[in-house]
Design a protein that fits this description.
The protein has about 500 residues and is of the alpha+beta class. Helix content is about 30%, strand content about 20%. Helix 2 runs parallel beside helix 5.
Length: about 500
């Protein structure tokens, strides 16, 4: 009870603090900012077709429908969350509100048009603090995992003396079917994933959706061996686990050699170009004294970085060039992409018949072996999982263009394929800084779902038990002992040979 009161007092203090420092917006200013946001999003974001065709909702209509809420908004803080909701409806990881570290990337014409200067970063920093003050006030963390279409409990846990058993299935939330409930969070739960098999979005942390206050409660219904359990959880409270769970592993790069199988194993926890020399030196050292039959590049949990990180490694390994066919497109209304010689050609195919995309690049990129390449002729397995993002997904997409590269594992449910640095803009009155992904990769697609470029060539479905073994392991998931004994994907690769 004392903790709840303390958090409530803190929340009130934070709200008052931000209210005193954020710019005071009039209704006309709010409407002007929101109209600017809608105009920029509808002209630049290329995602609406995919949302309508694959994901069964109109991103554009959902965003425009938010405008009526301005009538009841009484503070800049509340307006900030409305803008956040509009950007979240895009459900694209590079489209979001951003902090002041992105200010140097702001579109120069946008900055001039809206009279923005570096002084605006002080306001942008306040928005950043506002965002994290809400995120960090949520205390509830449930040991659940979305596995094969269901939200399952990873271990026994207790809340208010009630036991929720391992392997229980969540069936409902706040008196709604769980999948229906989650599908309503498209504007309030960031970076939701698409389940291609069941054709729905899912979000493991649905209980932390931004429309909920940290002092709210949420009622969840569980089913276990025919027994139904329901429990209300306070979002600022915690549960007691029967065993510790480790969801993340250290970010240590490594290169290992497995002599029995003659496998060279490269662990890349992030796409850090500065680590290129480390990898190349280790790869050269191992290959100099050992026979190599196959290679593995393990990018599980890799949140991205620079494409040059993985490109430099591949160039040092491959025997022949990798030719990647790309058709990079933009929203047909995007004024930032144009050709002085005339209008850019529209993209159309058997299922995209509307005039909605223009072609920026239709050609082939070539990744050549470097002058010191090993000219390795064996298979190179790229292990992926649901936590790969950005340039990590660019590597898995490249696998589709090479007989030598093979992607294996489970996928993210997020967009992959070609991308560029997102464009950064600022709203004229509130000075909210935001970014938008301006391009979409329409190469190598035969149906709308292919636009995700999100499939493993050798899919490996993990069970709830596979995840429990992983999360309970006290050592390194990427050491030889775990890989040999418990790693289902690694074992699958061994069976390929």
């Amino acid at each position: 009870m004392k903790k709840t009161i303390a958090i409530l007092v803190f929340a009130i203090f934070i709200t008052c603090t931000f209210a005193q420092k954020l710019p005071v917006l009039s209704k006309p200013q709010m409407y002007a900012d929101f109209d600017t946001l809608c105009m920029v999003l509808t002209k630049i974001s290329p995602c609406d077709y995919v949302r309508r065709t694959v994901n069964n909702y109109s991103m554009t209509d959902s965003i425009l429908s938010l405008k009526k809420n301005i009538d009841t908004i009484t503070s800049t803080e509340t307006f900030y969350w409305l803008v956040n909701r509009a950007l979240t409806y895009v459900q694209e990881g590079h489209t979001s509100i951003v902090g002041s570290d992105y200010y140097s990337d702001i579109d120069s014409l946008d900055a001039i048009k809206h009279h923005s200067t570096i002084a605006d970063t002080s306001i942008i920093n306040l928005y950043d603090e506002l965002y994290w003050s809400k995120v960090e006030c949520y205390e509830l963390e449930l040991p659940i995992k979305y596995v094969n279409g269901e939200y399952r409990v990873l271990c026994d846990f207790k809340y208010k003396d009630k036991l929720i058993p391992y392997n229980s299935v969540i069936t409902a939330c706040n008196n709604q079917n769980i999948h229906k409930y989650v599908n309503q969070l498209l504007g309030t739960s960031e970076m939701m994933r698409w389940d291609f098999e069941n054709k729905r979005f899912y979000a493991r942390n649905f209980f932390r959706s931004s429309h909920l206050q940290c002092t709210d409660s949420i009622k969840i219904f569980f089913s276990n061996n025919g027994k139904n359990i329901q429990q209300s959880f306070l979002l600022n409270d915690t549960v007691i686990l029967s065993k510790p769970l480790k969801y993340r592993q250290n970010q240590i790069p490594k290169v290992l050699y497995f002599p029995k199988e003659q496998i060279l194993y490269v662990r890349m926890p992030e796409m850090n170009e500065d680590e290129t020399n480390f990898y190349l030196h280790k790869i050269d050292s191992v290959s100099k004294n050992n026979k190599i039959k196959n290679m593995i590049i393990d990018i599980r949990d890799n949140g991205g970085g620079s494409d040059y990180a993985w490109m430099n490694i591949l160039k040092h390994i491959i025997d022949k060039p990798i030719l990647t066919k790309s058709i990079v497109c933009a929203n047909i209304n995007n004024p930032g992409f144009y050709d002085t010689d005339g209008p850019l050609k529209s993209f159309k195919n058997d299922f995209i018949k509307e005039n909605i995309y223009k072609i920026l690049w239709d050609g082939t990129d070539t990744l050549e072996p470097d002058t010191n390449s090993l000219h390795f002729k064996g298979k190179i397995y790229v292990i992926e999982n649901e936590y790969c993002f950005s340039s990590a997904n660019a590597l898995t997409s490249t696998c589709l263009f090479s007989d030598q590269l093979i992607s294996i594992g489970n996928t993210t449910g997020w967009f992959a394929g070609k991308g560029i640095n997102p464009w950064v803009f600022i709203l004229p009155n509130s000075k909210i800084l935001y970014r938008i992904e301006p391009i979409i990769d329409l190469g190598n697609i035969t149906k709308p779902e292919d636009i995700y470029h999100n499939s493993a060539e050798i899919p490996v479905k993990l069970t709830i038990d596979d995840y429990i073994i992983r999360y309970n392991y006290s050592g390194d998931w990427y050491d030889k002992e775990f890989l040999y004994k418990y790693d289902k994907v690694f074992k699958k690769i061994l069976k390929q040979n």
